[in-house]
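Request:
Um, any thoughts?
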Amino acid sequence: MGLLKTIFFLLLFYYAFKFLAKLFAPFLMKKAAETIQKKAQQQYGGQQQQKSTVREGETIIDKKPRNQQQSKDSVGEYVDFEEID
């Protein structure tokens, strides 16, 4: 009798969980999507504030910093190798 009772409660819990998941899953997914959207807007908003100092029609060119030439001695030594078949 105990085995049947256990199986009954497991099935009851399983179907109750499925039913509740169908009810609350859309709500939880909507909340998760809103949270992700808010984070994206905050991140994008921070980038917009940085770019807002540029007037419309103005062009900004970021130049690559000049690299100082390193001497060939600091690169390391050359090692000759042969391919092995």
About this structure: The longest helix spans residues 2-51. Residues 2-53 form one domain. The chain has a mean pLDDT of 82. The helical segments are 2-51.
